[in-house]
Amino acid sequence: MPKEALAALAGALDIKDRGDYTEDSYNAFAAAKSYAEAVLKKAGAYQCETDSAYKDLFLAVNGLEVAGGGAAVYFVDCGDHDPSTLSSGDSLGTNNSLTDMIYGEDPVTKMMWGAVDPKNSYMPTGGGNRTKSKGAYTVWTWANENSPGEIADCQPKEETFRYARNQDSEGITPRRVEYKFELVSGLYDLKVCVGNYWGNSGNVDIYASGEKINENTVSVPALRHFDFFCS
């Protein structure tokens, strides 16, 4: 992980007052950010220090818990390779019994939710590691399967992800990863994590209920909280 990537992650953070988060999760974030800043200031920092600082900060940001928050309505581990299991520390939402799925009826809660293909194509082909994964795949959005280790079960949610596979060569614009959720009308707190695993991603916009909900383009990687009203 280049030092520039660590600097970009630290510089992109938009963390509000510590009172917004639980004490333990904020303290872990503060320690990781302090270490990252020390590594950035250190002349001749070793690569292992940069790698460790990036991973610790990324995990700490994703581990921030909003103080006083109730149970999640949906918890989705995008790109999970066995949606029937939970990774350490995770809990399902009240409306979902799996961590990831293609859009349809949840087998337990009967709520409609899941990943949507941008061209409504749901019969993917190819991909040697994909065939060994229990993850949810569409033609144009895949769970990351680029090495055997990346399809292992019970990876932290910060390490698994769904990506827009070959959408650029297919002419899909804008390239996107999309989910739909059945919800009752009301105000919701949406927590979204976006990454830049291969270092080739541009900045992104976040949409909910068909409306862009970020004021400024989101620099990746990032974790963001949004309030949005579902009518």
Describe this structure in words.
With 231 residues, this protein is an alpha+beta fold. It is 21% helix and 17% strand. It has helices at residues 3-12, 23-41, 47-62, 167-170; strands spanning 104-105, 112-116, 141-143, 162-164, 178-181, 186-194, 207-208, 211-212, 222-230. A 3-stranded antiparallel β-sheet has the order 1-2-5, with no helix packed on it. Strands 3-4 form a two-stranded antiparallel sheet. A hairpin with a 2-residue loop joins strand 7 (207-208) and strand 8 (211-212).
Please write out the topology.
Layout lengths: L2 H10 L10 H19 L5 H16 L41 E2 L6 E5 L24 E3 L18 E3 L2 H4 L7 E4 L4 E9 L12 E2 L2 E2 L9 E9 L1
Antiparallel strand pairs: 1-2, 2-5, 3-4, 6-9, 7-8
Helix pairs in contact: 1-2, 1-3, 2-3
The low-confidence runs, each spanning 5 or more residues with pLDDT under 50, are none
Strand order of the largest sheet: 1-2-5
Mean pLDDT: 87
Overall 3D form: globular
| Series of secondary-structure elements, N-terminal to C-terminal | HHHEEEEHEEEEE
Quickly give the structural class. Answer: alpha+beta
Largest sheet: 3 strands, antiparallel
Number of domains: 2
**Radius of gyration from the alpha-carbon trace, in angstroms:** 18 Å
- Amino-to-carboxy terminus distance: 42 Å
The assembly state of the depicted protein chains is single chain
Give the % helix.
10-25%
Percent of residues in beta strands = 15-25%
Helix count? 4
Beta strand count: 9
